[in-house]
Every structure is written in C-alpha cells, then in structure tokens.
Amino acid sequence: MEHPIQELMQNISQKNKEEIICKKNYFVFLDGKDYFAVPLEAILEIVEIKNTNELITIPLLDDYILGVLNIRGEMIPVLSTLKMLGFTQEDVFFQYAVVIEVAFKTAIAAREIYEIISLDEKKIRSKALGENSSNIFLLEEFDYNNNIVRIIDMPRLFSSIFLK
Question: Would you tell me how many other CB atoms lie within 10 Å of the CB of residue 86?
C-alpha cells in the first residue's frame, strides 16, 4: 500500500505530464495577410533575407517555387505557402525564410515572423472542408490575438506537391 503523500505526488506528477502532453508548440508567421502555423519541431532555422538578390530565381519552375537560397553552401528551395495552398498572391515580398525538414530541407517564405507559441490542444479546432482543395492541408486552426491562425499539415502538403 502506498503512502498518501506518495500517491498525491504521483497524481501531481501525472497531472503535470498530462498538461505538458496537451500543449503543442507552433511557429506562427504571416504570409500575405494570412497567419499560418507550423509545428515547431519541423523548423531547423530562420534566415533573414536582407537583400532580394540573395534569392536565385530559376526559370521554368512551378510558380510556388520562388527560387533557391545559398545557406552556408547548401542550396535550399524557397516556396510560397500561399501559392502552394492555391491562394492568389499579388506580390512575393518576404523577409524571412523558414527552413524546415519534412522529406528534405526546404524553406517557406514568411513576410513577418509573428511568434512561437505553446498552445493547449483543446484550443485547436478542426476546420470543415469547403470547396477549396487547399483545405486538405489546413485541417486545423485556432484563434490567437484576434486572428485566425491556420495550421499547415506540412507532410501532407509536401507529399502532394512533390509526389505528383
């Protein structure tokens, strides 16, 4: 038989573990006028683009591939989240490249770094699928600072694009 204090400590410990497990960390960024979130564990680094000449454009590629960046001798493709998701994008201005690794290293363009947040899973809601086919990559969303933030399912998005 366990001592009541030990049992209480185990219950507290279990509750803390459950709270930790119920939280997810997301990187929130702005692309165009839309807020997106990517699970933090997918991000390798964030690179600030100080000069648009750093991006090397390559002709005859799909329009969602903005070009490549040379990051410490490694050529990393930079992709437009909005274009991959089927949104129209008038300008392709971005200030940051968020390097992620899903199947391979790539970067997604971000106009503005918003924040890294730890979010209770209970605050994440499922999105209803609508007419837009891009919705299959944006199945979840949450409210944050009076904005709707869409969570990108990166593995699903990349497998659909690169395994056509």
Answer: 12
